[in-house]
Prior knowledge:
- The chain is an alpha/beta fold.
- It has one domain: Rossmann fold, CATH 3.40.50.
- Helix content is 26%, strand content 13%.
- The chain has a five-stranded mixed sheet, sandwiched between helices.
- Helix 2 links the parallel strand 4 (85-91) and strand 5.
Amino acid sequence: MTSTGAATAPTSNGKDRAVGGDRVIVAFVCENCARPGVLPSSGLRRLPVLPDFGWPFPVHEVAVPCAGRLQPEHLLKTLEDGADAALVICCEEGNCHHLEGSQRCQRRLDYVSGLVKQAGLGGDRLMLFHLPGSAGQDMALGSGATPMLDPAMSRKVAAVRDAAVARLAKIPRNPLSKGGLPEESPYEVDSEDGSDE
Length: 197
């Protein structure tokens, strides 16, 4: 856990570093997607609860306060460090805590994909997936209403995992691969970022 407001979450299968011939994957996961609603509170930052994707291989999951906080350098550093792919899992449009976080993330991912493609690594190493956000549920709790829970959430999480696995099977190893990630995670996203882009 860091003091920057970002949290490095444990991987779904208990490993946080790929070893040997394993692929190296980094997943940036929005703290507000695929979780039950929580009562809004001022000044308190809760520990993130990320969905259990049940990855069939080691994935280094990084909890981000909003996918819209990801900067191009986070994604580029991930690939520079040898990750075979960087996944971004964010809220569906229309249910983002930060209104346009998902849209902002999409624009940045498109931009970085173009750079990565020009560099000869293939823009398909950057992948964006959406899960239901929790802004509506949080607002319902704040107003005293009972939020509607999505009974299909586990199927939606599994669908994201399966789509990611299928796409990963189609991309070659990163030629910059070093066999694993650095011991210190350079991928944390500051929750105090004042970016409006």
